[in-house]
Amino acid sequence: MKYSLKSSFSRWVLALFFAVLTLTILGRAVAVTGAIAFCDGFLFCNPIHPLGWLKNAHILSVGAASLLMLVVFHKAWREQRGHLVILPLTTILAVMFFGQALVGAMQVAQSYPPHLVFLHQLTTISLWVSLLLLTYNSGLLPAESKSVVLWIAGSG
C-alpha cells in the first residue's frame, strides 16, 4: 500500500495537523513567556504588554483549529463511515481536542490551578498521539479518481 496525501480527507487532516502544531507552539510560548500575566481576562483581552498578544493569538488559533476539527469530524462521519480505523481515530481525536479546549478554558476561569495545568499538558500528549495516528492512516486512503466518478455517473 502506497502512502499518499492525495485524498480530500487526508488533505483536511494535514491542514488540521498544522493548525494544531501552530496552536501547540503558541500555547507553549504563552506558558514559557508568562504572557498570561500581561493579558488578564477570559476569552480575549486588551494586552498591557506586547507579550499579551501571544495569549490572544493562542485563543484565535484555538478557534481556527476548532473549525478544522469540526470539518474533519464531519467528513469522517460522511465519507469514512465504513473505515474501521479512520472513523474511531477521528472521533477520539475530536473528543480529545474539545476536551483539551474545555480544560484550557477552565484553567483560565479558575486562575490556573496546578491540577488543571497538569491535565492540560497530559491531554496535549494524548491529542498528539491521536493526531499523528490519524495523519498516518489518512495517507493510506486511496486518492479520489474523477474518472471513476464520471464513469459511474455516465453509466446510468
Descriptive account of the structure:
The protein is mainly alpha-helical and 156 residues long. It is built from 5 helices and no strands. 24% of the residues are buried.
Residues in helices, as a percent range: over 70%
Gyration radius (Cα, Å) is 19 Å
Quaternary structure of the protein: single chain
Q: List the secondary-structure elements in sequence, H or E.
A: HHHHH
DSSP strand content: under 5%
Q: What is the end-to-end distance?
A: 31 Å
Mean pLDDT: 86
| Tally of separate helices | 5
Overall shape: elongated
Number of strands: 0
Structure keywords:
156 residues, mainly alpha, elongated
Summarize the structure.
The protein is mainly α and 156 residues long. The chain has helices at residues 8-33, 52-79, 86-109, 114-138, 146-154. Mean pLDDT is 86; it is low at 145-156.
Please write out the topology.
Layout: H1 8-33, H2 52-79, H3 86-109, H4 114-138, H5 146-154
